[in-house]
Amino acid sequence: MSNAVSRQSSSRKAVLYRMVMSTHICPYGLKAKDLLEREGYEVEDRWLKTREETDAFKAEHDVKTTPQTFIDGKRIGGYDDTRRFLGKTVRDPKAVTYRPVLAVFAIAALMALAASYANFGTVLTIRSGEWFIAFSMAILAMLKLQDIESFSTMFLNYDLLAKRFVRYGYIYPFAEAGAGILMIAGALNWISIPVALFIGTIGAISVFKAVYIDKRELKCACVGGGSNVPLGFVSLTENLMMIAMAIWMLFMSASMGHMG
Q1: Cβ contact 207:236 at 8 Å
Q2: 74 and 189 share a domain?
Q3: Are residues 42 and 167 in the same domain?
């Protein structure tokens, strides 16, 4: 019994070597320390305060990076290795994921509901539905514009118009942003409606052909050129939302004109 308690006690102690310099504090070192402490470990926090100390440590232990975690005298490894040791998941930077798009739609929905409540005192209005699509368009365009070169390169893999007119890959994010912002404002419908209808239709046809006809496995450029979002249903949804919004606004404009 006492031996078991002793082993459990020693297993809850960890030694962490991390870079803490006047010009740089390793963020992964901070993450590793926080993770170990949250898992109940008593951390002996050893700082590598100079480049010379860091290089000497790496050479001594034959490692390429810091931080490095040691438990019971055994080197566990860096931050990711420590997560694995503790039974935590480790993100694969190459893995496909829908998280970026889901995050955009979730934030856009909350913004739309908040705007509706601020303007009408209730969250569930027709305007909140319109704002959801318009906010989504504006946010997605912003993500594309962060690195328009990467976006346009990825976009060329599947967009039918961009393949014929390369500059369209650079125009698209500005068109999407402009249409979305005008729809939020409810202004200049004669610009926003045809732009959204045009880019949405071309996009929907392009995605449908690439994914469902040609059966190609591609990454979607919908949230920017650096994403690992697979081209498919979510990408098609972005374009169909633009088409739906344009048709809805066209219908509403026609109805208002008829009533007038």
Answers
A1: yes
A2: no
A3: no
Cβ neighbours, 10 Å, residue 250: 15
Show which of 26, 60, 85 is a domain's final residue: 85
Distance CA(239)–CA(206), nearest Å, equals 10
What is the pLDDT, as a whole number, of residue 227?
A: 66
- CA-nearest of 142, 210, 218 to 174 is 142
Whether the CA torsion 47, 52, 58, 64 is positive or negative: it is positive
pLDDT at 226: 61
139 Rama class: left (phi>0) / alpha (psi -120 to 50) / beta: alpha
- Identify whether the C-beta of residue 145 lies closer than 8 Å to the C-beta of residue 177: yes
CATH number at 21 reads: 3.40.30.10
183 neighbors 175 (Cβ within 8 angstroms): no
Which strand ranges, in their side-by-side order, compose the sheet holding 68-71? Answer: 42-48, 13-19, 68-71, 74-77
Angle among Cα 140, 97, 138 to the nearest 5 degrees reads: 5
Q: Are residues 112 and 51 in the same domain?
A: no
Could you tell me the mean pLDDT of each successive run of 10 residues in the chain, 260 residues long? 42 90 93 94 94 93 94 93 92 74 91 96 93 93 91 89 94 95 92 93 91 82 68 77 87 64
CA distances from 96 to 89, 106, 223, 258 (A): 15, 19, 13, 48
User: What's the structural domain count of the chain?
Assistant: 2
- Do residues 39 and 109 both lie within one domain? no
Q: Which domain holds residue 217?
A: 99-259
Burial (CB < 10 A; 0-12, 13-18, 19+), residue 193, is buried
Secondary-structure breakdown of the chain: helix, strand, coil percentages, each rounded to the nearest 5: 65, 10, 25
Q: What backbone torsions phi and psi does residue 156 show, to the nearest 5 degrees?
A: -65, -15
